Amino acid sequence: MIVLKFGGSSVKNSEWITRSLGIVKAQIDRAPVMVASAMGSVTDQLQDIAYTAGEGNLEPANIMLGKISGLHHTTAIDLLSGEILSGCEKAITAILEELKSIIKGLALLKQWTPRSNDAVLSFGERLSTTLIYYRALEEGIKAEYVDAREIIKTDNSFSSAKLLEDITYTEIRKKINPGRNKIYITQGFIASTQNGITTTLGRGGSDYTATIIGSALDAEEVQIWTDVDGIMTCDPKVVNSAVTLKKISYKEAQELAYFGARVIHPATIQPAIERNIPVVVRNTRNPAGSGTRIVHSETGKGIKAIAFKSEITIINILSSRMLLAYGFLKKIFEIFEKYETSVDLISTSEVSVSVTVDNTKSLKKIAEELSHIGTVSIKENNTIISLVGSGVWKNPETLLRVFNAVNTIPIRMVSLGSSDINLSFVVPGKYAAQTVQQLHNTFFIKE
Ligand code: ASP
What we know:
The chain is α/β, with parallel strands linked by helices. The protein has two domains: about 1-225, Acetylglutamate kinase-like (Carbamate kinase), CATH 3.40.1160; about 305-445, VC0802-like. The protein has helices at about 15-25, 40-55, 60-80, 80-110, 115-140, 165-175, 205-215, 250-260, 270-275, 330-340, 365-370, 395-405, 430-445, and strands at about 1-5, 30-35, 145, 185, 190, 200, 220-225, 245-250, 280-285, 290-295, 300-320, 345-350, 350-355, 375-390, 415, 420-430. The strands form three sheets. The chain has an eight-stranded mixed sheet with strand order 3-4-2-1-7-9-10-8, with helices on both faces. Strands 12-13-11-14-16-15 form a six-stranded antiparallel sheet. A two-stranded antiparallel ribbon has the order 5-6. The structure holds aspartic acid. Aspartic acid (ASP) binds near residues 8 and 205.
């Protein structure tokens, strides 16, 4: 069997829904499961609704809801006819009524919580997959609709819930029985706790749903259909000479996703690694293109790509008490653990530690507690730039080329990972584009 995941831009209107379904249909003999995101920017709109209703502003929330309702009803009319259209209208109306009641409740209570937020966001995927399912029926395709909340089980850390793998895999195997000439259709991103409370896997989490299902069912391949040609050597919006990578390894893809390449969600690769399932990133606009294949094996030596992550904060902790002391780092990291803030990069000297974080929600409290350990200074608005590739970092020649390429840039931190996959450094945000460009010219432009 195979899993095909379609992002928001691949199901943004009737034309794209039909195209995406066509891509699945063309592979129907491979026993496909289709995982879909919400249409276009619907999740963003639902996010606005959740905040607006949570502040007690029912009317503006209802106006926004009207827009979402209009989009799904007109798309249904474009896609469907006769009894299938009325069946779909009924299903969509019921889903929208449920959302309307939730919004009313939140507005009356003037309440916003991560839990209610997840409940509101989940409607985007529920609506889009309803349209896709009915369209499949309209085209005479044998289709089964599965509510992802019945198969993807998580804890209750709302907004980025953690997977409960064993029970999820059991449920998936129970409820999805892929076969040739039939399409299973389900939602990405949404899940539920064991008590049935709706959760989400984090924004962009539909990719993760796809590999979870792929892993549970031992898929032959997971295809991530998006609006770019695959994983590129760099973000083409910053470097216009960026090119698509044909193949990269799981480890390289993971590093790239984690350090800012937005093509796949950072959690996507893990389930695929466990079963050695290839993940292929492909472009719905260019289905003939081969995309990028993410595989287990090594994919050759060299720097594969440059990723970057902006709006990064550096925290420096300086203390002479650190000199020759032990247990010092433990104390520092316990503070980050307490405030559930993950650290991206670390560099240390005998008397100082520098770390980067992108979640600054608890920055003040963290800085306050760290100040009992040493002198704390904070630098905001930085960019982490990561060069990802295999088998090159032990070669001094590579490092020389990297630092020659950025010899006019003020570098604030450097980290060469022990994995021999990633060299990252941090520069002030205003130098980010120039740095990335210079590095790309050095490693990817052949003279
Ligand atoms: N619809 C969700 C989002 O926009 C999840 C996804 O598309 O992967 O974040």
